[in-house]
Design a protein that fits this description.
The complex is a heterodimer of chains A (116) and B (115). Chain A is mostly beta strands. Chain A is built from no helices and eleven strands. Classes of the chains: A mainly beta (116), B mainly beta (115). Chains A and B meet through strand 4, strand 5 and strand 9 of A and strand 11 of B.
């Protein structure tokens, strides 16, 4: 009963390095999201996907790219990391018709990224 | 513009006291959804409640209760007889688009319950 799994849990990067965060869900959810959490700002949406092969920009997309080649995976890439990208990153997923049910967005446990 | 405002940054109470968390939202849509999430010190996000804009009934779940008032655009959350395990960051969130389920979160309120 894995739910939403994020890899890695922690990472330290140097400015200019690149990395990819992996989000995997085993609930057959159509929708997937990447949020970042910063102190005093809550969670802000970076990118999201409403289905395999589709992605869209959220509130703070600059400096990030995403891909959804398989329905169960949603990758978040940082091509050239900057200290401003130091944050906790959360992945989430949901069914398309989640509105009808009470089941909410399902979140992963987060990835803590530090860029020095 | 901030769509969800949680004016209280931190609240500290002694165990068994009641605590109310304020949430004020802003939207032009007539149909929307409001949420509360809890983030304990372990870091995961725990869903507490979802409320539809067309359902203004208040809700109670154990020691938790929610007061939704469209007239003041508020969706306040009360913890009755608080316990140390209630110590967490609480987020209020709004979703306006029913097609993609994007959430706009407030900045969060940190609740500390002292024994």
């Amino acid at each position: 009963n894995a739910g939403v799994t994020q890899t890695p849990k922690f990472r330290v990067l140097k400015t200019g390095q690149s990395m990819t965060l992996l989000c995997a869900q085993d609930m057959n959810h159509e929708y997937m999201y990447w949020y970042r959490q910063d102190p005093g700002m809550g969670l802000r949406l970076i990118h999201y996907s409403v289905g395999e092969g589709t992605t869209a920009k959220g509130e703070v997309p600059d400096g990030y790219n995403v891909s959804r080649l398989k329905k169960q995976n949603f990758l978040l890439g940082l091509e050239s990391a900057a200290p401003s990208q130091t944050s906790v990153y959360f992945c989430a997923s949901s069914y398309r018709l989640e509105w009808i049910a009470d089941s909410p967005l399902h979140f992963g446990n987060g990835t803590r990224l530090t860029v020095t | 513009a901030q769509k969800v405002t949680q004016a209280q940054t931190e609240i500290s109470v002694v165990e068994k006291e009641d605590v109310t968390l304020d949430c004020v939202y802003e939207t032009r849509d007539t149909t929307y959804y409001l949420f509360w999430y809890k983030q304990p010190p372990s870091g995961e996000l725990v869903f507490l409640i979802r409320r539809n804009s067309f359902d203004e009934q208040n809700e109670i779940s154990g020691r938790y209760s929610w007061n939704f008032q469209k007239s003041t655009s508020s969706f306040n959350f009360t913890i009755t007889a608080s316990q140390v395990v209630d110590s967490a960051v609480y987020f209020c969130a709004l979703s306006e688009n029913l097609n993609d389920y994007k959430l706009s979160f407030g900045a969060g309120t940190t609740v500390t319950v002292r024994a």
